[in-house]
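Molybdopterin oxidoreductase
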Amino acid sequence: MSWSPTTSHWGAFRARTTETGELEVAPHPLDRRPSALLGNVADSVRHATRVRRPSIRRGWLEHGPGPTEHRGAEEFVEVSWDAAADLVAAELDRVRRAHGNEAIFGGSYGWGSAGRFHHTQSQLHRLLNVLGGYTASRNTYSHGTSAVLLPHLVGDAGTLLYRADTWGTIAAHTDLVVAFGGLPLKNVSVTPGGNTEHPTATALSTIGESGVELAVVSPLADDVPKTPRARWYPIAPASDVALMLGLAHTLLTENRHDTAFLDRYCTGFDTVADYLLGADGTVKDAEWAAARCGIASQDIRALARRMAESRTLVTVSWSLQRTRHGEQPVWAGLLLAAMLGQIGLPGGGFGHGYGSIGDIGDDGPLLPLPTLPQGHNPVRTFIPVARIADMLLRPGDGYDYNGGTYRYPDIRLVYWAGGNPFHHHQDLNRLRRAFARPDTIVVHEPHWTATARHADIVLPATTPLEREDLGSGRRDTHLIAMHRVLNPVGEARDDYTILAGIAERLGKGERFTEGRTAREWLVHLYDEWRGRLAERGHDAPPFDRFWAEGEWRLPSAGEQPTPFAAFRADPRRRPLHTPSGRIELFSSTVAAFGYADCPGHPVWLEPESDVEHPLWLIANQPSTRLHGQGDVGATSQAAKVRGREPIELHPDDAAERGIADGDVVRVFNGRGACLAGARLTGALRRGVAVLATGAWFDPFDDPAQPGGSLCVHGNPNVLTEDVPTSRLAQGCAGQHARVQVERYDGTPPPVRTLLPPPIAG
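Predicted structure tokens:
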């Protein structure tokens, strides 16, 4: 069989079926650093956990809509597609008529597919908009805090999130990169929409050969690239701001800060300087910082001096703003860069997200891509994306967000397609209670994930290999023709077909489809996109030739300007979109909001102590899958310890608890508990444990456990706290948790995620 082209969030690849019907995958020929996540594809696509027919929770089928605590515990009944579509359409119509469109939550957080047309979130939002709208969510779990904060500081977030200096610029101009939160290689194989060539992995592995020094600040040695001239600063978790302020104090008191830059391009430095010098009664010097962050005061001063002597790029990972008070490390990192006076210079200044995802620092083209129009949502009600449980548990309550006061709607129907909140949300025991509140939960899923198991109506969706699409990522070098490789498993249908059937039943079929089949939509979107490129002087091939060839190399990006270079060149004619037109180190706007958890300038807010749970748990991104995608695949499964997610422990911490490598351990705090497999390593700071996100949530109900259940598979989000970063951004704070770990004696409950739930025909 011949190879067919396709792509994924972890990169472009080829796929084919053998004569015996087995699926084979191979990296794209141009990809010198293909992702290990390709190893999950072949085993996942026909796995036993595939949803094979439309399935209805028995209690909902027999008793109708309504709140219930039985979600996640009852068997499902398989029904025909006609019956399932009738039920979904009727329930949408009932909720709209009885409660209004605001009562429908269509947040449907994405990552379902790298395809541009079968982008599941867009498909669902298009249907709901045709039906009169829905309550939406804003921002992302990944960098939602920064998306709110940065416009107050530098006028917009996109400059730093999407137009950062390239690795080539850094190699040519930078002397020192100071990376708060690390530069983990495992993260850069992933980009929304994928990368064909994965250049960032190569850049991170070789940047030291260009003479660039790396000062990597992280509790984890694995966050340090294995490259010459890299030094690890093993900081205590949740203390990066203390280190940043100690560095800033050194620059200030040794007169190593750039006063001319601060005067011309910034506002509010005098207020911050007073704070550094102790206006609140505490001087933020290197000794003060050392006592909190665990980095010696002499090393803090030495690093500050090296930063002042060099072309320095200060970068803050997305992980640091995914913590309690996550606004502060971003703001304090910007303060450091401003004091060095190099913002707007090639290879200097401030970066945000290097090492967090594959396209930051990439030099690929930043072009508009084919996109399915979603239409207009007339419902203005929204929530910040990480406030799902609050919304479901507290209808009618008010909340603060970015200077405004809003209220949570009374949600009766949750429609989720293309995501898995039981992967990425915090305090999953609380989320289970929240999911008991709506009348109905509808889910599209290829697999029986925890979200599907906690739904009322589960509609089997195809995987990208079972349909056609157009694929490309931000800064990707190619547009990929995603050919269909496999027949759908069971009765799975693509989301477009599912939603078109529902729209037809509600009298909106023509408005949703515009009379086009899925293939006709691909041609239409491609031709529209081709026309837009022609206006820019680029000649893309006709659709038929593109489809036959399987890909088209996108036009070169050309020279990319350094962020804020135009502002630096002429701040009067090219001011920032801030109230002052300058970088706001003190924001009178934010200060006027009156948020104690996010004042008007970067500050140190002491993390809560927890003597009963002395270990800092870091719930970072896995190296073996994308979020929860592919957890049943070979690469992810090979990393398990006795069938459970591995937890990394320092050997000394393990010895204190009588834990040996390979033991099953119980990880717990006041919110929840899970089982994991111990893996001992010296590549982390003592007092730190690492349990990556994405193990499929597998709750074993036990009232003796905190939260009422034990996740037997090892999902860390039973342990993370469902609180916002602050009242300003209401961002996700799920990167850290305080925990205790003990050896699990006895026979642990079995892991059930590799099998479907009970299903009646």
